Amino acid sequence: MTDLSPDPFSPIQLGPVRLRNRVIKAATSEGRSPEGLVTTDLIDFHRSFAEGGIGMTTVAYCCVSPQAASAPGQIVMSDKALPGLRQLTDAVHTAGAGISAQLGHAGVVAHKRLTGVTPLAPSRFINPSSGAYCREIRRDEIAGIIDQFGDAARVAVDAGFDAVELHFGHLYLPSSFLSPLLNRRKDEYGGDIDNRSRLVRAIARRVREVVGNRVAIIAKLDMDDGLPGSIWIDEALRTVQLLDIDANLDAIELTQGSSVYRPMYLFRGDVPVREFAKVMPTMVRPGLRLLGKAVMGNYPYEDLYMLPAARQFVPIMKNTKLILLGGITNREHIETGMREGFDFVAMGRALLREPDLVNKMIADPGTRSRCNHNNRCMVTVFGRTHCVLDPQQRYGAAESMDVTAGKIIRR
């Protein structure tokens, strides 16, 4: 029987953009923008993936407003950031890859200590991980959030990005509207899944109005988040169907898990409790050491661990391409995704370990990733995201420069 699956390393069209292959560097919060601006460290980080052979790299996490941050060191999409963003996109393009900006609003994942404001949620909510109170967002504020996504997308276009990725996953603000656990609203944004999908559809529509066909639009969306009574695959299928009917997206990257509780449902593998305890406030550390696996979740790693859920979405797609994420570490996994009907794959931790992994797989189809899924890279998002097993990544950048202000930032 002839294998009719496409070559994963051949060029492919994503909306208006031609990419050299089907491998996307997944968004991994970077912590390399301490002033909310691009640094040389951030440029070097993404240039390494471009030089390593990927089709497109994703810059994460790009806040649609200063109040939208989920962690320190994130870019705020503003005109002030434009000069540095242009240098970043130029560097990636020169290395032969495309570049996408992940746009998001943290919602319940935010913390007042970071943003200066009370976090927003579809309904009043207490974040079980941080203990932070989240207030219910008003209807007039929802319209403002939709416009913020449009404004951030305009900055991305002006900066030379090839795509924007709308963060509709992990119980960030748009995702929390999809969750019946967090969304108990009585207006048109609450109730059944069609109403709860209203915000993500409006954001996608607004971004398309702003960018037209100048860049590709991707959405990252939860299939399920691992929390009882929250997002599950039956309603996620309906949300994706509605987004596909609207035809405002060029691709959807399917994901799982949340940043609110049991984050290991997204990552799988080793649970770095001791490492997380070290970066938490002193009063939290004893409890985390004692109950860490219960709070974070404990899920064994398996190759292609999102595929069983993700394949349910393939038959319903009419207008939108699909991106497979989760446990992809070698060429065989990528080819499996292609055979299953996915158009692209996204890789995260494996590329943190080896930025040149795609080039290695092209040169030697039998290449296996050196990532061992210890997940200690998760903890580095509180400082500067990197693979802890690579000395050059861990110690190589003692300082970085804000490329717009010429400011040296010591680390």
UniProtKB/TrEMBL annotation:
Keywords annotated in UniProt: Flavoprotein, Oxidoreductase
One example of the protein's molecular function in GO is: FMN binding
- Domain NADH:flavin oxidoreductase/NADH oxidase N-terminal, residue spans: 9-229
Checking SUPFAM superfamilies in the record gives: FMN-linked oxidoreductases (SSF51395)
Which InterPro entries does the entry link to?
Aldolase_TIM, NADH_flavin_oxidoreductase, OxRdtase_FMN_N
Tell me which PANTHER family the record gives.
Answer: BINDING OXIDOREDUCTASE, PUTATIVE (AFU_ORTHOLOGUE AFUA_2G08260)-RELATED (PTHR43656)
Protein name in UniProt: NADH:flavin oxidoreductase
